[in-house]
Write a structure and sequence with these properties.
The complex is a heterodimer of chains A (433) and B (382). Chain A is an alpha/beta fold. In chain A, the strands form two sheets. In chain A, strands 2-1-3-4 form a four-stranded parallel sheet. In chain A, strands 6-5-7-8 form a four-stranded parallel sheet. Chain A is globular, with a radius of gyration of 21 Å. With 382 residues, chain B is of the alpha/beta class. A four-stranded parallel sheet of chain B has the order 2-1-3-4, sandwiched between helices. A four-stranded parallel sheet of chain B has the order 6-5-7-8, with helices on both faces. Chain B starts with 8 loop residues before the first helix and ends with a helix. Classes of the chains: A alpha/beta (433), B alpha/beta (382). Chains A and B meet through helix 7, helix 8, helix 15 and helix 16 of A and helix 5, helix 6 and helix 13 of B.
Chain lengths: 433, 382
C-alpha cells in the first residue's frame, strides 16, 4: 500500500492494536457481562479488518451514513464503514490518545465554531487523510442541516471528488406517500451501488438477511420491554450497543441474533432475581439525545453518586417495526421506514416536533421516568428549537426537565464538572435521589 | 462615500416597501378586501398564491427590536431570524396574514411551524416537504406537494386555482424577473446607475406587493435609469453572497466604506430572478417544481448543487468585473457554515479575495463591520 492508503487506515489499525489486548483480558475473565462485551468489540474489530483488507487489496467497499439500510449492503456482499461512527470508537471509550489533538487541529480548519463538532471532526479526519477512500459513497441529506452540509464538503475534497456519491433524501412528512417515495430512493440507491461496485442485489438473499435482522429487532424490542422494570437490569453500555450492533458489519448474521438472545436472557434473569447491574437505583432518567464521547466519565458518577440510571435514551428508543418480507415491495417499504422513520436522529430530528412529544410521552409513562434530561448537543439546532415543547410536555406529565447544553465531542464546550454540577443542582432542586 | 444614486419616484415607492413591514401597497390590498398569504423561504412558488388571487408576502422581521417573547421558544443556539420573526408573530405583528406556508427550509425555520401552529391563530398554515436534492424524483415529489397545497388552498380560501390561472401567474412573475434582470445588468458598467443597497431594496419590495403593480414600477424604474450613470469613485467592485439578507442598510454600510456591491448570490437577491419558469411546459405545476427544485440558482441546502452554485458565482464575478467577494452568514446557520468552508478553500485556489462575516439578523456591530470591510478593501489594494 502507498503511504496515503496506509495513513487512511492508520486509526483503524491503532484501534485494533488497542482493543485486542483488552479483548484477551476479557476472554480470560469474562464475568457475567464479559461475553456480551467481547462480542461487540470483536464485531467492531472485524469490521475494521474487513475495511483494511479492502484497501490493501483494492476490493470495492463503501462509506455510508448510519441509517442507510445495512441489510441491502449485506445482501449485496459489499463491505462498508460508517464514517460518522469513527469518533465514537477509541474516542468514545475515553481511550483515544488523539481526541484533544484532533479537536485542536479541527479548530484550525476555519469551519465556523457554531457548526456541529461531530461533523467538523469528521471533516478533519477527511482533510487529514484519516478516512479510507471508498469505491462509492452513500451520504444522506438528513436529519439536520449539518449532515447535508458536511456531505457537500466531503464531495468537494480533492481526494474524494472522483468518488461517486448517492444521498438518499428523506422527506419531511411521515405518511404512506413519504414511505413510497423513500422506498424509491432505496431502489435508486441499489442501482447506484450496482453500477459502481459491480455487485448485484439478489432478492432471495435480501429476504434472508431481513428475516434474520427481524429476529434481532424482535429481541431488541423484548429487551427494551425489560428495561421498563424497576430496577432496570443493565447500566448504559449494553442498551446503547443494540443500535450499533445491528448497524455494523454482518447484519443478518445468526451470531448477532444469538447475541441479542443472550442479552435478553441476561436481562431476564436479572429482573427475575432482582439483581440489577447498578445497585441502589433511585432516579430513572430519560437521556434524550445521543451519548457524549465522554459518557464513561459521566454515567458511573451518575450511578454511584445519585443512584441515577438511564432507563431509556434516544439511540436505544426507536419505534422499529418488523419488516414484511413477502414481496420486494413490502421489503423496500419496510427498509425505507426503518431508515427514515425509525432510526435514531432521523426519527427525532427530521420531521415535526410531534415526534418529540410522542417519544417523551410514551417513554415517561412506559419506563416510569423520574426526569427527562435533554443534553442539547450544540449541533442539534432543531432540537434546541424544540426544547420549549419538550419542557411543556414534561410539565404536563409532571416530570422534571433539564436542558444542559453541551458538545458531545468536546468537553471544552461544557466541562464534565459543569455537567455534573448542573445535574446535581437539578436533582437536589427537584427532590430526586 | 457611496450614497444611493437613483432619483426615481418608482424607486422611492419600492424602497419604502422594502423598509417597512406593512407597506402602503399591502395596506391598500387589505382595505380592498384582499387576502395575504405569507411564506418563509424563496423556494415557495409565489405564483401559486398569486394564481389564487391572494397576495404573496415573504415573511421578514423588518423593524424587530427584540426577542423577549420568542426566547421562551427558541434557544440561544438558534438563528436570530426565526427568533425575531416569531417574536413579531407573538406580538401580533403578522396578524394581517390570512395564511402561511412554511417549508423545512432549515433546522431553525422549520421549527417556526411547530410553534406557530401552537401559539398563533393564523387561519391557514401549511408545511411542505422541500427536497434537498435536485433530481427527477425530487422534482416529481415537489410537484405532488404543490398539487396538495393547491387543493388545500382551494378548499380553505374557496377559490379555484386553475392551470390557466397558474400559467398567467407564472407569466406575470416571469415578467418581473426579466425586468429585475434588466435593471441588474445595468450594474455591469463602470458607472452602475444603482448601488447594491438600492438593488436589494428593489428585489425585497417584490416579495411584499402584488406582482402587477410591482412589474409596472420596475418598468418605470427602468425608464428612469435609462442613460443614467452612477458614481465611479468607488474603491472596488464587490459581490455579496450567502443566505438570507433582507436589509439594504447592511449593504449600505459596506458601500459607505467605498466598496460598490455590483452583484450578489443571495436568497432575496439575484437567485430569485436569474432564471425564468418555463412557460411552455404543459403542466404548470411541473414547471414550477422543475424551476424551484432544479432550474433556479440554488441555496446551500440543495446539497448536490455546490458545483453549480460555485459556477454561478464565478460567472457573476466575471460578468460584473468583481474585485472581491463578501460572504455573510447568520450565526448558527450550519447550511451556510459548511458552505463557507468549501468556498474558502476553493476561492483560495482560484485567487478570489473573500471576506467571511457572521452577523445577527438585526443590524448591529456596525463598527466591526466597517473595520473589517475597510481592511478587506485594503487587502484588495484599493
Amino acid at each position: 500500500m502507498d503511504a496515503k492508503k496506509e495513513r487512511s487506515v492508520s486509526r483503524l489499525r491503532e484501534e485494533i492494536a488497542m482493543f485486542e489486548p483488552i479483548l484477551e483480558v476479557l476472554k480470560l475473565a469474562p464475568g457475567e457481562m464479559g461475553n456480551l462485551q467481547t462480542f461487540i468489540i470483536e464485531d467492531i474489530l472485524d469490521s475494521h479488518k474487513k475495511v483494511i483488507e479492502c484497501v490493501e487489496h483494492e476490493k470495492p467497499f463503501l462509506a455510508s451514513q448510519f441509517t442507510n439500510p445495512v441489510e441491502i449492503l449485506t445482501a449485496m456482499d459489499i463491505p462498508w464503514y460508517f464514517h460518522v461512527a469513527h469518533q465514537f470508537m477509541a474516542g468514545g471509550t475515553g481511550g483515544s490518545p488523539h481526541t484533544i489533538e484532533d479537536l485542536e487541529e479541527m479548530d484550525k480548519m476555519g469551519i465556523p465554531s457554531d457548526c456541529c463538532t461531530l461533523l467538523k471532526l469528521l471533516l478533519y479526519y477527511q482533510a487529514a487523510g484519516l478516512l479510507p477512500i471508498p469505491t462509492a459513497y452513500l451520504a444522506l441529506t438528513e436529519p439536520c442541516d449539518g449532515v447535508a452540509g458536511m456531505h457537500s464538503v466531503f464531495m468537494n475534497h480533492p481526494d474524494w471528488r472522483g468518488v461517486p456519491v448517492f444521498a438518499p433524501d428523506p422527506p419531511y412528512h411521515s405518511d404512506e406517500r413519504a414511505v413510497d417515495y423513500y422506498a424509491g430512493e432505496m431502489k435508486r440507491m441499489v442501482e447506484f451501488v450496482e453500477k459502481h461496485t459491480g455487485k448485484s442485489l439478489d432478492m432471495g438473499r435480501l429476504k434472508g438477511v431481513v428475516e434474520e435482522t427481524n429476529k434481532g429487532y424482535a429481541m431488541w424490542m423484548e429487551y427494551n420491554d425489560l428495561r421498563r422494570s424497576v430496577p432496570t437490569p443493565h447500566s448504559y453500555v449494553m442498551p446503547m450497543s443494540c443500535f450499533y450492533l445491528v448497524n455494523d458489519m454482518g447484519a443478518g448474521d445468526p451470531a448477532k441474533t444469538k447475541w441479542y438472545q443472550d442479552m435478553v436472557a441476561n436481562a431476564e434473569s436479572r429482573v427475575r432475581e432482582n439483581r440489577p447491574e447498578v445497585k441502589n437505583q433511585r432516579i430513572r432518567l430519560f437521556w434524550y439525545d445521543i451519548q457524549p464521547m465522554f459518557f464513561s466519565e459521566l454515567v458511573p458518577w451518575l450511578e454511584q453518586e445519585w443512584g441515577a440510571v438511564i432507563a431509556m435514551d434516544m439511540v436505544s428508543y426507536c419505534p422499529y417495526e418488523l419488516i414484511d418480507t413477502s414481496t420486494e415491495d413490502t421489503m423496500f417499504k419496510g427498509l425505507a421506514k426503518r431508515a427514515f422513520l425509525h432510526g435514531p436522529m432521523v426519527h427525532q430530528a427530521r420531521g415535526l416536533a410531534d415526534n418529540v412529544i410522542h417519544d417523551i410521552t410514551r417513554i415517561v409513562k412506559d419506563y416510569k421516568i423520574d426526569c427527562v434530561v435533554f443534553p442539547g448537543h450544540m449541533g442539534h439546532k432543531d432540537m434546541a428549537a424544540s426544547a420549549s415543547i419538550m419542557r411543556e410536555v414534561c410539565r404536563d406529565l409532571g416530570v422534571p426537565f433539564l436542558h444542559i447544553g453541551m458538545d458531545v465531542c468536546d468537553k471544552r464546550y461544557t466541562t464534565v464538572e459543569e455537567i455534573k454540577n448542573k445535574m446535581s443542582h437539578f436533582f437536589t432542586a427537584m427532590g430526586l435521589g | 462615500m457611496l450614497k444611493g444614486c437613483v432619483t426615481s419616484g418608482a424607486f422611492e415607492r419600492l424602497s419604502e416597501t422594502a423598509s417597512t413591514l406593512v407597506n402602503p401597497e399591502m395596506r391598500r390590498w387589505k382595505e380592498e378586501g384582499g387576502r395575504i398569504v405569507g411564506y418563509f423561504c424563496s423556494a415557495m412558488p409565489a405564483e401559486m398564491i398569486t394564481a389564487a388571487g391572494l397576495l404573496p408576502f415573504r415573511v421578514r422581521a423588518t423593524g424587530s427590536t427584540g426577542t423577549e417573547l420568542s426566547d421562551s421558544y427558541f434557544s440561544s443556539i438558534n438563528c436570530s431570524f426565526p427568533r425575531h420573526a416569531f417574536n413579531m408573530a407573538l406580538r401580533g405583528e403578522y396578524d394581517f396574514l390570512d395564511g402561511l406556508v412554511i417549508f423545512n427550509s432549515c433546522d431553525h425555520v422549520r421549527r417556526i411551524y411547530d410553534h406557530w401552529i401552537r401559539q398563533i391563530k393564523t387561519p391557514f398554515v401549511q408545511i411542505l416537504s422541500l427536497p434537498k436534492k435536485a433530481e427527477d424524483a425530487q422534482v416529481e415529489w415537489f410537484r405532488d406537494e404543490l398539487s396538495i397545497l393547491r387543493q388545500r388552498m382551494q378548499d380553505h380560501f374557496g377559490i379555484e386555482i386553475t392551470d390557466a390561472r397558474l400559467r398567467e401567474a407564472i407569466a406575470l412573475h416571469n415578467r418581473s424577473r426579466r425586468r429585475l434582470k434588466e435593471i441588474y445588468e445595468l450594474r455591469k458598467g463602470l458607472r452602475p446607475p444603482v448601488t447594491g443597497a438600492e438593488m436589494l431594496a428593489v428585489t425585497v419590495a417584490g416579495t411584499a406587493m402584488p406582482q402587477g403593480p410591482y412589474s409596472s414600477l420596475l418598468s418605470d424604474l427602468l425608464a428612469d435609469l435609462a442613460g443614467k450613470e452612477g458614481r465611479a469613485d468607488y474603491r472596488a467592485r464587490l459581490m455579496i453572497i450567502g443566505g438570507l439578507l433582507d436589509n439594504p442598510e447592511y449593504v449600505s454600510i459596506i458601500e459607505d466604506q467605498g466598496g460598490l456591491v455590483v452583484a450578489d448570490s443571495l436568497c432575496f437577491g439575484s437567485r430569485t430572478f436569474w432564471a425564468d419558469v418555463d412557460e411552455n411546459t404543459h403542466d404548470p405545476l411541473t414547471a414550477l417544481a422543475q424551476y424551484y427544485i432544479a432550474d433556479r440558482p440554488s441555496c446551500a441546502r440543495m446539497y448536490t448543487e455546490y458545483p453549480k452554485r460555485v459556477e454561478y458565482i464565478r460567472n457573476m464575478i466575471k460578468e460584473f468585473r468583481v474585485d472581491g467577494v463578501i460572504f455573510q452568514r447568520l450565526a448558527f446557520c450550519e447550511t451556510w457554515g459548511f458552505e463557507q468552508y468549501s468556498l474558502t478553500n476553493d476561492f483560495k485556489e482560484w485567487n478570489i479575495p473573500l471576506l467571511c462575516m457572521d452577523r445577527e439578523y438585526v443590524l448591529g456591530g456596525i463598527g466591526q463591520l466597517k473595520t473589517r470591510v475597510q481592511a478587506f478593501l485594503e487587502t484588495l489594494g484599493r
